[in-house]
Every structure is written in C-alpha cells, then in structure tokens.
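Appendix C. Worked example: Phosphatidylinositol N-acetylglucosaminyltransferase subunit Q
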Amino acid sequence: MVLKVFFPSCCSSAESGILIGRWISEQSSAVILAVVHFPFIPVQVKQYLSEVQRVTKVSVSVLGSWSNSKQEKEESLSEFLEDLGTIFSHEPWIQISKEGGSKFWSCSTLQKHSNNPKEEEIILVYYDQRKVMLSHLHPPLDTATSADHKADDASKLSAIFDTVAKSKILFMTDRYDDGPIKLTHWQSDGVEASIIVELMKQASVPACMLLTFLLSLISGICRSRVLKFWPLSFLWSKLSTCEQLGHRLQHLQVISSNKKAQTQTQLMRKANIFVSLLIDVALGILLMSWLYRKNRIGHLADTLIPVADHVAEELQDLLQWLMGAPAGLKMNRALDQVLGRFFLYHIHLWISYIHLMSPFIEMILWYVGLSACLGLTVALCILSDIIALLTFHIYCFYVYGARLYCLKIYGLSSLWRLFRGKKWNVLRQRVDSCSYDLDQLFIGTLLFTILLFLLPTTALYYLVFTLLRLLVVIVQGLIHLLVDLIDSLPLYSIILRLCRSYRLAAGVKFRVLEQQDGKPLRLLMQINPLSYGSVVQTYRLPTYSCYPKDSWTSLCKKLFLGELIYPWKHKGEKQD
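Step 2, the predicted output written as structure tokens:
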C-alpha cells in the first residue's frame, strides 16, 4: 500500500513539533496543513483543533510528528515524539524527520493499535500552500474516452485543494500572536493583507448602497407603464442602444448587489463584469476626449452631408441604369419605368429630409458624443443605429423589392400546383388533390404567364437592393460583433491567467526531486494553469444578440423566397 503525504514546502525549515492536517482514508493520503511547535499543552491543541473543525467543517487532527535535526539533536526527542502518538491516537502515526547532514528526509509510520502492522511505501509530496489555497481547480472540459478516468483524478485532487482552501482560518494565526499555540504555515511571518484593499472594502459598502438605490429607481422607471405605449416600446425593443443600456443596467445590478458570492463561479462572474465595465467606460472616455479635441465633431458633421448626397447620387445613377437595359437584358418596359420612378421619388424625399436636418446635425452629434462616457459599447450601438437611420431608404427599397418578389414567387408556386391538379390545404398544412374547371385553368394560365414574364424585372430590382441591404447588415454585424466581444470577454480571468496563472488550475504535475533506496520518494507538486482558450470558454459572460441566429441554409432559403432579413431581434426571442 502506498501512503501519500502532502507536505507544505514552507514548513521545511520549521522547528520540531507535531503535524496537523487532514487524513483522507479513501486515498490513503495525509494533507499536512501546519506544524505546532513546542512547548504546548495537548488539551489546548485538541480544543484549538475542535474549534477549527467546527468553523471549517474539515476533520483536522494531529497526524504525526516533525523533527528538525538542525535544531534538536537529543536522542530523547525521538522517543518523546513517538509517545505523542499515544496522546493524540491517530492511525497511522506519521513521523517525518529532516536529517542534518543529508538532503534526504526520513518518513515512517507507526501503527500501535494494529495486530499486523504492514510496511508501507511512502511518497512525500511537497506543495506550495499559498498557491494551492488561492487556486481553484477546474474540472476537465474535454469529452474524450478517458473522461471518466480524468474526472476521477480531478475528484482526488479537488479533495486536497478543498482541504487547504477551507482551512483558511488556520492560517490567520502568525508568530506575533500571544496565543498558547505557535504554528508554522505559509503566513507564519505575518498575515497577508493590504491597507488599500481594506479601505476600498469599507468605502464600497455605502457606494454600493447608493448605486443600488439609483439602479432600483431607474429600473422602476423602465418598468413603468409610460414605456409600454406603442412608440416608446417599439423604439426600446428595436434600437440596439436601448438593448445595450438594459444589458449594462443588469450588469450594474449584479455588481452592486449586497449578496455575497457563494461559489467561485459567481465571484469570477462579478469580477469579470466589473473589469469589463471599467475598461468599457475607460475606452468610451478616451473616445469622447478624442472626438471633442480639435473640433472633430464639427469636421464630422461637415463631411456627413456630402457623403449622404454622394450616396444618393450613386443610387440615382444605379436606378437610371436599371431603367435602361442593364447588362443587355430585355426588361419589361412599363414595370421597369414604374419601379424606377417610384424609387427615384423616395430618393428625392430622402435628400430633402437630409438637407432639412443639416442645421441640427452638428448639435445632434455633439450630444451623441457625450454618450461615450457610458462606455465604448454604447457609442458603438449608437453608431449602428445612426447607420440604420441613414440607410433607411435602402431598407425601404429592399422591403418593397422583397415584397413584390415574394408575392410573385408564391403566386407562381400556387399557380404551378393548379396546373398539376393540386392545392394547398390550409387547415391540414399539406398539398391535396383538387379538380378545376376550364375557366379556373384559363385564368390560372393567364396569371401564370403574366407573373412569369414580369418576374425577371422584379427579380433584378430585388437582387440589387438585397445586395445593398446585405452590405449595410454586414457593417452593422461587424459593429455588433465588437460590442459582443467587449461584453462577453472575461477580461479579469484573462488578466488573472496572465499575472497569477496558478489561480486558475487545470490540474497538477509532479517533478521528482530525490529518489534513493530505503528513503521515501520526494516529489514536487506544481500547478498546471488553464489554457487561454479554456479560460474564455469557462468564464465567458452571457450577452445578447441583435440579430437572429439563422443558419446559412435558412438564410439562403429566405433570400431565394424573398422573405425579409430583419436587422433587429425578433419579439420574444432571447438569446444568450
């Protein structure tokens, strides 16, 4: 049988004493947590351990003795340490001694109450107590054939990590305390603390209370009946700026909540949201300072009107080209002229609208630039909405063309079923047989011929405006991809992985220190950090999407049938 003893490397130079820790019988492992030095009273040690066990819910006990031959060289010490096994009565009683003239340690076990004591092979594993206590062991993410074996190994390691993490109160006693018990652990020389962190904790309490009150007030206004009337409810549900503000409002409510995080996942989520908000606001303030420097807002307003005029002129040239013989195609002259003049009139209305708004554009942009202080994501969402408003005439052209094309496609498919003696059963949602008389077949043939010969003209207009609409949707999609990246990227976890990689543990690796016959094998346990991809996959924040998640097959089917590609989120559709 192999006995594994996990020994903290910070106790290697500790004075002689007794070892306290947890015995894991399922794994035949002993996790040493601290060393109690002489002199001590056994009753006080038992009382102290019972108090620690009551608080931490970890079965902490005296596991054995520790002898450092550099401090004590009396022969009676080893006998005294063996006699301590009868006072604390733990099976097996572990004896670890550090030999003065050798780099090897001796480790043995005593089983006084066993009738058939067996000689056990002992493996001495050193671990960094501070890193193990602060780290969080993650379960394996892959689903390979050896997943069960990896999960079993992870559960064994988690028992060791949990033992050290839950024994935090044991490490709150240092050598400067006046208590009757002197311990050696990773904080023996002084409890690790920061005055700045403590001051921030004290100041965060009233700040969180004030922020919670303000957020509850804003949430009450947002849930009021005023915003449920048609114009405001429509704008709130369609504009991506409103969606992003609501998303950030939920983040602020999570951060300012006075409810303490119960698990490591909740704590990391709060930290990731806080850092994401902080960096988002910092980038927004930088953007705002850049916009208001050297009158860039005025230059942007001066270039906006010429750009809009140039786009309108290009659209007029495109429509003039479509009203002629585009690419040598023979179009239906009457329908071509009607559609062309209809779209030209819309462009004329759009140009008039832009020039009517031109005196107010600089003022609008000036106030819009102030919204960047709410975050870069809010500014990007406002940019997306501005693009949607500036290209609204293109969206109207696309809707007109798509509706005409869709009407003709469905009309042709219905009339094609008429020729085959079929019809669509609306109640049963299927195609059934049907008999038609001569007049119905004549009218159907006439309508089919008319729709078929008008289809190329309508399809060409639909194709052109669909390409223009897809170009606008792609630009807005890239903006929203950047917004989703800022919203969902776990920046705190990535920074933690970069600076303190041991905090995010994926597993451990063991390095052989010394090995000699008759001596215990000495290993060094080192923490394997999570990969950056696993960090992003594990701690990625949920986000919203302003675009429905259609597959490529569904998108191509919609484009072929003339169904609208909505740029906004469908009503009642919530995506994480």
